[in-house]
Amino acid sequence: MIAVGLSLLSAVLFGSMSVALRFALDRERDVMLGTFVTVATALVVALAWAAAEAPSRGVHVTAAWPFALAGLLQPGVGQLFGTLAIRETGSSRASMVFGTAPLVAVAIALLFLGEPASVPLIVGAVLIVGGSVELARERERPAHFRRIGLAYAFVTVVLFASRDNLVRWLAKSTTAPPAVSASAALLGGLVFITVIARPRLSRQALPFVPAGIFFGLSYVALFEAFYRGRVTIVSPLVATESLVAVGLSALLLRHTELVGRRLAFGTVLIVAGGALIGAFR
Question: Are 183 and 50 in contact, with CB atoms under 8 Å apart?
């Protein structure tokens, strides 16, 4: 039950991050700068969490280095594409695609791990595809919408799903506490982003700090969940961030995101499909 609660907490925080990132990108469209500040702020949050729990859990830094490699996937490459997706399609539509992560995770398992297919998996996949079709059939879209953003979002999903499986595998044998492992992953991603982006900090970086705080809290909660539960439980629950992001976008960004019934219905289908996959995988 703790893993379930942490997964849902991570989902709420990640959905909030997407909306906060949309607000920031409305003020500053530099994706490289935004990604760097978001991940750097998240690292500070994770380090603070790790320091707070160090007296009871220890640190075990030397055991956390493999997670830095996982961080190259996400938040390294993945967060860059995620920020691009939110800039080009908006927080609601990008998050809707992010919600397809359970389907991608299952596809990876079917192709590379030899897991068997089943009726619930197929039904879940159909629901997710149906939700994606609803997104494609939208007639009214915001002025900032660019189709390439959906491709960026899908790349992000593949990296998310790969990271989830890798983190769960590493968590089974590590002695490093979750917050330390999350910090290592964020540090690995930040080093990659710094090399690629070479950001120049200015006042324009400040709008991205709230998104980084949400992201850091979400990331540590995610690692805490993976230490306690299987990917098949955690990933579908975290994918409910789509509902959070779409709901917050409709509430706070209704004039720019244009969240209609088709988008909302498609999001429900995707989340339902992910839940079905997680329950019966």
Answer: yes
Taking only the tens place, the pLDDT of each residue in 91-107 is: 999 998 998 887 887 77
Confidence of residue 113 (pLDDT cuts 50, 70, 90): low
- pLDDT for res 258: 84
Helix (H) and strand (E) counts in the chain: 14, 0
CA max distance for the chain: 55
Q: Quote the CA–CA distance of 160 and 101 in Å, as a whole number.
A: 7
Q: What angle do CA 155, 156, 157 make, to 5 degrees?
A: 90
Q: Tokens for 20?
A: 């906060």
- Both tokens of 126, joined, read 């159909």
d(CA 247, CA 35): 23
Residue with tokens 């629901």: 127
CB within 8 A of 107, min separation 6: which ones? none
> What predicted TM-score, i.e. pTM, was given to this entire model?
0.91
